[in-house]
Amino acid sequence: ENSATDSKNLRVKLVLLGDSGVGKSCIVLRFVRGQFDPTSKVTVGASFLSQTLALEDSTTVKFEIWDTAGQERYAALAPLYYRGAGAAIVVYDITSPELFNKAQYWVKELQKHGSPDMIMALVGNKADLHDNRCVSSQDAKEYADRNSMFFIETSAKTADNINQLFEEIAKRLPRPAP
Ligand code: GDP
Ligand code: MG
Fold it and tell me: Quick check: CB of 158 below 6 Å from ligand 1?
């Protein structure tokens, strides 16, 4: 269920978690449409987008991306949201220590509700705002290592590391036997 179709064409449900305003929707729009809209609207409920990525080894990965708003207000939906998800991205904003703490809450939620073999990424977004950085890369990396996640800093604004984020997830997905 997690990432099937065949050995050359994978498909994975990916969920995004993190507090409102950290840039989840902008990361998805940058990846799917190659755009950044600074006036983007707050996500209402949930939105669904898909994008296929071709890897160097000629496999393709179709990401079925579930982006939500304020999951905390939709607690009853959480099991539906996590069910069958093969990958999750937990996002914080590098300029906010508070949002880094909230990211750790989302990681615990994932560990509780998600499948144990889910690929998890910790993403420090808004890396373009480095002059206002409040969360060190070192601290975030150590936290990610302790929780079996991989860590990357991105900017949806400049596109920095956005494709790399999805490529890293794609590379880590379990490959079905050929
Ligand atoms: P969400 O609530 O997590 O989906 O956050 P949004 O994607 O709606 O973004 C919230 C705000 O942060 C918007 O005003 C975006 O323009 C801004 N934003 C998102 N990503 C970046 C980024 O990488 N750099 C900067 N400087 N601003 C960003
Ligand atoms: Mg949003």
Answer: no
